[in-house]
Amino acid sequence: MPWIQIKLNATNENAEAIGDMLMEETGALSVTFLDAKDTPVFEPQPGETRLWGDTDVLALYDAETDTALAVTQIQASGLVAKDFAYKVEQIEDKDWEREWMDNFHPMQFGERLWVCPSWRDIPDPSAVNVMLDPGLAFGTGTHPTTALCLEWLDGLDLTGKTVIDFGCGSGILAIAAVKLGAAKVVGIDIDPQALQATQDNAERNGIKDQIEVYLPQDQPEGLKADVVVANILAGPLRELSAVIKGLIKPQGALAMSGVLDTQAEDVANYYRDELVIDPIKEMKEWCRITGYKLS
C-alpha cells in the first residue's frame, strides 16, 4: 500500500505537542520522533544549511491524503513558525524497502538504461549505466514512480535536447537524461539537500559539469526545455501546473509521476488546456502522465 510522509523540524520542547496535533487534527496514521543528530541523511556538509531542528517529526499518511491541507493545519496550530521547514515525500512499502536495502541489484529500465549500485558488477558495459547508491534523497529506481519515468526517458531520443528534472531529488532522472544523450539538464528542487544529492551523484557518474541545479527562486529567467519530467506528488502537480507548463517549449514533452491511479485523471485535466495527453500508464497503483505541448 502506498504512503506519504511529512517530515518537519521541531525542538525537544515542542515535538510531543506537535506529534499529538498531527495525530488528532491532520489524520496522521503514525508519528515518529528522530533525534536530528542520529539522522545522517540530513546532516549538512561543511558550508551547507541544515533543514531540520533538534528533533525530526515524521508523520505517515495514506497516499490519497491532501497534504496541502495537512500543512495548512500544521501552520494554523500555533506550534510551528509560519515559515517552518517541512518535506513531503513518497514512501516505499517497508518490507520491500528492507529487501531492497539487503539485496539491491542492477535494474534495467526500457531497452538501454540500467541503474547499478557501486558494489555490484555492471551487467552490460555497453549499455547506458547510471551508478547510484542509497544516499541523500528519494529516488533510486525501486519505486514505481521513478521506474515509470526512467522507462519513459529511455524511450525518447534526447540527443541535443534540453531536459528539466522538476523536483530532482537524488538526481537519478537528470543523470539518466545526460547519459541518454541530452545536451543540457537542469535539476530544480525546493530542498537544498536534494540539490546537493544531485550534484554528488552526478559527480560519481562523471557528469557533474553537465547538470545545473537550482532552487526555484534562483532558476534562470525564461528557462524552458524540450523535455520536462516531474516526479513529485499529485498536490504540487495540480498547484504548480501553470509553472510546469511554462517550462515546456512548443512541441516539447512532459512526464509526470508521483500520482495514484485514483488521482491521475484529475491531475491530467490541469494540463489538457496546453498539452495533448497520452494514455495514462499505471504500475502498482502509481501512474505516469505524459504528453506534448501544442504550441
From TrEMBL:
Residues where S-adenosyl-L-methionine binds: T146, G167, D189, N231
Gene Ontology biological process terms from the UniProt entry: methylation
Pfam families linked to this entry: PrmA (PF06325)
Top EC class, one word: transferase
Gene Ontology annotations for the cellular component aspect, listed alphabetically: cytosol; ribosome
Keywords: Cytoplasm, Methyltransferase, Ribonucleoprotein, Ribosomal protein, S-adenosyl-L-methionine, Transferase
Catalysed reaction equations from the record: L-lysyl-[protein] + 3 S-adenosyl-L-methionine = N(6),N(6),N(6)-trimethyl-L-lysyl-[protein] + 3 S-adenosyl-L-homocysteine + 3 H(+)
EC id: 2.1.1.-
Compartment(s): Cytoplasm
UniProt keyword Ribosomal protein present: yes
InterPro entries noted in UniProt: Ribosomal_L11_MeTrfase_PrmA, Ribosomal_PrmA_MeTrfase, SAM-dependent_MTases_sf
Entry GO MF terms: protein-lysine N-methyltransferase activity
Entry's family note: Belongs to the methyltransferase superfamily. PrmA family.
HAMAP family on file: Methyltr_PrmA
General function of this protein: Methylates ribosomal protein L11.
UniProt name for this protein: Ribosomal protein L11 methyltransferase
Source organism per UniProt: Vibrio palustris
